[in-house]
Amino acid sequence: MTKTETVTTEDGVRLWAQRSGRGTTPLVLCHGGPGLWDMFDDVAALLGDLATVIRWDQRGCGRSQPCDGPWTVERFVADLDAVRRHFGLDRTALLGHSWGAQLALHHALAHPDRVGTLIYVSGTGIGPDTDWHGAYKENQSARLGERPERLARWRELTETPGRDQAQEREWAVLHWSAEFPDADRSTEHAERMADPWFGINAACNKQLNAEARKVCGTPGLYAACEALDVPALIVDGARDIRPRSAVDSLERALPRVTRVVLPEAGHLPWVEDPRGFREAVAAGLGLG
């Protein structure tokens, strides 16, 4: 049974949340972005017999209440903890994807006693941006360039000031199409991500990314990860346009970590390899 609920944070912001699945293990999903919304329909369906799956839209994003922030990792960690409390969970497994992987990691660092397992999917590690961002941009252009007209239109929209919502959605679909290795189906997959379309929270994206750049690569973050006594699973798609070597920094730091690389998958590994993704997550939850 699927049930949609409203989580109210301690500062009064209302968050959209949804519970589904029939498994006994609680699993909270953290979507990517920043500034996007939960797109985990496929993941919830794939894992619903393994876990009770809880999804939510981050503050000011998607179906959650519009607000003015604050856009900080500390605030988002507190919001995630509000979701945990709302559903009456003493401890939960966390699965974060992309930016959501960073959020789940920071929640585990802040509250290790409240996290049973950390599943870190398609993140970019704990090193500085310079470890991966330049190669990511090159790979993105190359992937988009497999369809030259797509790359040209994406560049045109990127340089268009004050895009309206139709243009913003078109830009996002083109942008996201680079996440999928199969050029014949990449636009189809990206269209699914944008349906329904809620709009990107640009302020949230800008400020959280700026904070991440300041924190990543710092000795304090490395030391905190080295001290994290929580079982962790890292899941990568080998064909992600973000270099997977960026995640080596996190793998080296975590004391209780397993890593699974799915060779044919991209940034959303459950799309290209649902079976491999499910098997990896099941093993990470101790259900394999």
TrEMBL record:
SUPFAM superfamilies, per the entry: alpha/beta-Hydrolases (SSF53474)
A GO molecular-function annotation: hydrolase activity
Keywords assigned by UniProt, alphabetized: Hydrolase
Every AB hydrolase-1 domain range: 26-273
Pfam family, one: Abhydrolase_1
Family indicated by similarity: Belongs to the peptidase S33 family.
Protein name: Alpha/beta hydrolase
